[in-house]
Amino acid sequence: MKTVTIHTDGACKGNPGPGGYGVVMVSGKHRLELSGGFQRTTNNRMELLAAIVALEKLNTPCAVTLLSDSRYLIDAMTKGWLRGWKARGWVTASKQPVKNPDLWQRLEAAAAPHEITWKWLRGHAGHRENERCDVLAVAASVGPDRAVDAGFPE
User: Fold this and answer.
1) CATH 3.30.420.10 fits 2-142, yes or no
2) Of 69, 114, 129, 149, which is the active-site residue?
3) Is 134 a catalytic residue?
4) Where in the cell is it found (predicted)?
5) Annotated catalytic, 69?
6) Where are the domains of the chain?
């Protein structure tokens, strides 16, 4: 099984506001950077979308280490939140609708073929690849080709 290290970050100017995601994927000697921007979204949506886009880019099952500075993402995947939300019909333990169910469902599908180790790291702490993801995400959030985030409810 091929091993891949994925670094992700999301950015949003205002929350909600213009946003973007950045990804750095490394496998052996190969390195790929991905980014995308949206006209109006939230930081949490961009954090999720970064992970989704990276995992969807993999065309065979891989052993993945995914690093993110988003507790929202990492805790949902490591503490069983996603399983609980799904089991309760996309309702939180406090009986509130889960935010971003479209992206959680997409993330679950993208993650399914892979063996993933989810790791949190402190953002803006000098981690080279996380800093690069931040640069990519911020640049995408202000870029001219920002898409409409169709899943973002106004």
Assistant:
1) yes
2) 69
3) yes
4) Cytoplasm
5) yes
6) 2-142
Q: Is 20 a catalytic residue?
A: no
For residues 56 and 62, is the Cβ–Cβ distance under 8 A?
no
Q: Let me know if 124 is a catalytic residue.
A: yes
Positions at the binding site for Mg(2+): 9, 47, 69, 134
Say if residues 22 and 35 touch (Cβ distance below 8 Å).
Answer: yes
Q: Measuring CA to CA, which residue among 85, 86, 79 is closest to residue 120?
A: 79
What is the pTM assigned to this prediction? Answer: 0.96
CA quadruple 129, 130, 133, 139: dihedral sign: negative
For the sheet containing 115-120, what is the strand order?
30-41, 17-27, 2-12, 62-68, 115-120
How would you write the pLDDT of the chain (154 residues) with one tens digit per residue? 999 999 999 999 999 999 999 999 999 999 999 999 999 999 999 999 999 999 999 999 999 999 999 999 999 999 999 999 999 999 999 999 999 999 999 999 999 999 999 999 987 778 899 999 999 999 999 999 999 999 998 6
